[in-house]
Amino acid sequence: MEARLSFQGTGGSLFGRFFGGAVLTLLTLGLFLPWYLLWLARWTFENSRLSTPAGEMRFDFNGSGPRLLGLMLVNALLTVLTLGFYTPWAVVEALRYAADGATARGADTRPWRLRFDGTGGEAFPILLKGFVFGILTLGIYLPWFLCALARWMAARTRIERDGAPTGTVAFDGAGGELLVTFVIGTLLTMVTWGIYTPWFQVSMWRHFAGHTKVTVDGVAWTGDFSGTGWDWALQLVIGFALTFLTLGIYLPWFVARQARFRMGNTRFLSPRNARPA
User: What is the DSSP letter of 158?
Assistant: First the structure.
């Protein structure tokens, strides 16, 4: 058994929101930005699907524009006033807002929701350690930081159906394992003057997907990413070329193709046929 993500959005359906939102954001000197971000989030969720053995699930995002505006203003103000020390709390509030707005419904129309109950106090030592050790080790600590952050975020996320807890998320990736991928990817990206970037990105996506476990109604599912660096490189080359040749007009189609690639290659496998982590 497997549950596979897919994306059905097109550049044509994004075109009006993408450029219309950008224009309104400029005309309002940035005030429209929260609503612009909501437009993009709703387009992404509305065009996402999850095919499961029980049927197809559809997604929606019902976040509030005024709430997001207040959140952005408060987070920005407090982060500046505290010289950055408020950053962990700002991150937590952003994650909670995103989780609260996300919903999914299957064939029975019963709502599924995410709940995030992490706190700024928990995030503070993770971010502080990542910042300090990242500088002291010249970036070598980054894999451990990314894994620690992913592990904390997953542990603080739960899945609800009809308001009742029904699932959990876990991440079991290790910094030592990711370090090999990170070092090889960084070196090859530098040596090839950036050409290896798509392969590096795919390796990172595969690592984080493969170490993500979702348990729903007692059944565990393991993430998997099947995309290849060659396919992703082709997507980027075509997308950047057409965006340049059309003076930016192709950008919505480029965004849609990226989402289709990422989601179309992401699936969750049951223990019966899951790949070894």
Answer: E
Number of domains, the chain: 1
Burial 244-263 (b: 16+ CB within 10 A, else e): eeeeeebbbbbbbbebbbbb
pLDDT tens per residue, range 64-77: 999 999 999 999 99
Tokens representing residue 135 in the block = 């500088």
Q: Specify whether the CB–CB gap between 130 and 149 falls below 8 A.
A: yes
In a domain? residue 274 = no
- The answer to the question of residue 277 being in a domain is no
Q: Is residue 186 part of a domain?
A: yes
Amino acid at position 194, single letter: G
Q: Which domain holds residue 95?
A: 2-269
Q: Which two tokens stand for residue 175?
A: 């910094």
Identity at 21, one-letter amino acid code: G
Which neighbouring-strand residues pair with 159?
114, 167
Residues 75 and 45: beta-carbon distance below 8 Å = no
Whether the full predicted model's pTM is greater than 0.85, yes or no, is yes
